[in-house]
Amino acid sequence: MKNIDEDLLAELKRLRGNAYAPYSDHPVAAVVESGTGRHFGGANVEVAHFKSTCAEASAISAMANAGDRDIRLVYVLGPGGRPCPPCGDCRQRIREFASPETWVALIDDEGRVQKTYTIGELLPDSFGPDHIPG
Ligand SMILES: [Zn+2]
Questions:
Q1: 7, 102, 103, 107: most buried, per Cβ within 10 A?
Q2: Domains and their CATH numbers in the chain
Q3: Residue 93 CA to ligand 1 centre (angstroms)
Q4: C-beta separation of 92 from 102 below 8 A
């Protein structure tokens, strides 16, 4: 599998280093590439009542707050070199701003792409904005 570029890996590691994960000890970073080509990053932020914010949700919020509305790609760097796929809630959040062909790539500490999926594979036959009558 191919590697991501060094700058992106460094950004993922910087973000993961800023994760606030005192309860799970499971720091995660995510970077979303928007339709404009800009990158937005986030890390998980836990709270004592366990209604925490995942890295993907943080990155998606940063993107939406900057005015972008389309996700092209999502990169996720978990701890310990093990693949860290998005949780169910994050799959739905990615789906909100993605097409079924949007890629999610799981990265290891050496920058290798461990696994890729489309959001259509991660969340098949999903509910989305087009199901809300407008
Ligand atoms: Zn999540």
A1: 107
A2: 6-126 (3.40.140.10)
A3: 9
A4: no
